[in-house]
Amino acid sequence: LGLCVSRASASVLNFNCCLVLLPMCRVLLAFLRGSQKVASRKTRRLLDKSKTFHVTCGITICIFSVLHVAAHLVNALNFSENYNEDFLSINAANYRGEDPRKLLFATVPGLTGVIMVLVLFLMCTASTYAIRVSNYDIFWYTHNLFFVFYMLLMLHVSGGVLKYQTNLEEHPPGCFNPNKTLQGNMTESKAFEEMFPDYTTEPFPEDLSVPEPFVQNNFMRICSEEPKFQSHFPETWFWISGPLCLYCVERLYRYIRSNKPVTITSVISHPSNVLEVRMMKDDFKARPGQYVILHCPRVSALESHPFTLTMCPTDTKATFGVHLKVVGDWTERFRDLLLLHSNQDAEILPIFQQRRYPKLYVDGPFGSPFEESLNYEVSLCVAGGIGVTPFASILNTLLDGWKCYKLRRLYFIWVCRDIESFRWFADLLCMLHNKLWQENRPDYINIQLYLSQTDGIQKIIGEKYQALNSRLLIGRPRWKLLFDEIAKCNRRKIIGVFCCGPNKISKILHKLSNSSNSYGTRFEYNKESFS
């Protein structure tokens, strides 16, 4: 039973170790999402579940690893206690009663297995939500131990502990071996002769044929030779070599692509600890809703973080930018380096002084669900706090021109705790609002701003933001009424729902999107998920 369980769990582990790397091939996913090869929107939406798929494969690996280890512990005990000299080639033990710990710590499969369990334990515990939030560095460094895990996995399967029989036709299971039986009888005869020399036995003819009834019996098969065994060819190589090579090639491509540092053109400090970084890079192209990974060696030699593009390069301008919330050690050190030589809220240096900025490398862009927001006729975009960043690039794109996209109506809901946060993109919202009014399309975008926390005093975003002040509401959105109103105004249409914010809001929107309504309107839910 132990051998069967270990083999079955090993097959499941091979399959999941193959799949767990595929969702991390970001370049491949971005290519599939942006190419015409995946024309179906439903299929493209499945690509947005890459992180969930990766986590599912990781949990499956942990569960079946426990099962695999338990089965091999039973196997080690069986090898030691059931040692048989007749089957030396298939027994991992050297003698009866051998300490099973030697099989675990003194053999290549055993030792690599123990180390793999320790590596997997570190990776799993450091992947929990509590550790990722409290100390992201621990999660980052331990997760990169996956390469050590795969190298040990390749060594683990090369030990050849489990074997299979190569001559099943010549020696089928349960067959009758007359030669072995005769040799046993001859041994007993010699012992009988030594005890009773007067009663000698005639040697048993070697060419004695087996009685006919034994041959004709359907339940008795004759062995023509002794069983022969050899180690299984390691199937793990077939499973993980392809995805591992694909992942390594992609990482090499990403390293070459991001090897040249970007030129930082400006750094702007916004209210509520938000920093805007604008950059330029040769041949950099991106689509609205995509994200990039920033790496600053002076902040951390290995650590890097994803940030959604809030401004994409166009045919007329090559500048792109990100907004980042200063929370955590990495963003704090990054902010201090960027604003080291400036005491003002904005720093825009001339070209000959830009060397003061630290070197910054950009990896990407990579795809996200928000690329689909322009492919719906009607879209509902809900942002919570700094979660507005994915929609900023979309609003910037609409500001440059909206007629070339399928989108004809956009509902934009933004919920913030303090009034100052709305100033991050207040100018952008006002410019887009004025542009649409000038083009006689004021119904193209419906802006609703919610201030969830207030001290009771009516506040405004600013005197120059009159178009936004009239759309500022105190409190939280009444989501059920909001969905009913949107469904009523867009009967029998498919509406894309996009959310980037707290999990509480995300769960509410997901539930409402899956609920039916009396207007024949269907909501398709999408959620931001960095892979």
UniProtKB/TrEMBL annotation:
Organism name: Nyctiprogne leucopyga
UniProt-listed GO biological process terms: defense response; superoxide anion generation
Name the UniProt record assigns to this protein: NADPH oxidase 4
Entries under PANTHER family matching the protein: NADPH OXIDASE, NADPH OXIDASE 4
Pfam families: FAD_binding_8, Ferric_reduct, NAD_binding_6
Molecular function (Gene Ontology), one example: superoxide-generating NAD(P)H oxidase activity
GO annotations of cellular component type: endoplasmic reticulum membrane; focal adhesion; NADPH oxidase complex; nucleus; perinuclear region of cytoplasm
Subcellular location(s) per record: Cell junction, Focal adhesion; Cell membrane; Cytoplasm; Endoplasmic reticulum membrane
Topological type in the membrane: Multi-pass membrane protein
Residue ranges of every copy of the FAD-binding FR-type domain listed in the record: 257-372
Class of this enzyme: oxidoreductase
CDD domains for this protein: NOX_Duox_like_FAD_NADP
Lineage: superkingdom: Eukaryota
Keywords, comma-separated and alphabetical: Cell junction, Cell membrane, Cytoplasm, Disulfide bond, Endoplasmic reticulum, Glycoprotein, Membrane, NADP, Nucleus, Oxidoreductase, Transmembrane, Transmembrane helix
Reactions catalysed, as given in the entry: NADPH + 2 O2 = 2 superoxide + NADP(+) + H(+); NADPH + O2 + H(+) = H2O2 + NADP(+)
Gene responsible for this protein: Nox4
Entry's EC annotation: 1.6.3.1
Main function: NADPH oxidase that catalyzes predominantly the reduction of oxygen to H2O2. Can also catalyze to a smaller extent, the reduction of oxygen to superoxide. May function as an oxygen sensor regulating the KCNK3/TASK-1 potassium channel and HIF1A activity. May regulate insulin signaling cascade. May play a role in apoptosis, bone resorption and lipolysaccharide-mediated activation of NFKB. May produce superoxide in the nucleus and play a role in regulating gene expression upon cell stimulation.
Transmembrane parts of this sequence: 12-32, 53-74, 103-126, 138-157
Lineage: Eukaryota, Metazoa, Chordata, Craniata, Vertebrata
InterPro entries named in the record: Cyt_b245_heavy_chain (IPR000778), FAD-bd_8 (IPR013112), FAD-bd_FR_type (IPR017927), Fe3_Rdtase_TM_dom (IPR013130), Fe_red_NAD-bd_6 (IPR013121), FNR_nucleotide-bd (IPR039261), RBOH/FRE (IPR050369), Riboflavin_synthase-like_b-brl (IPR017938)
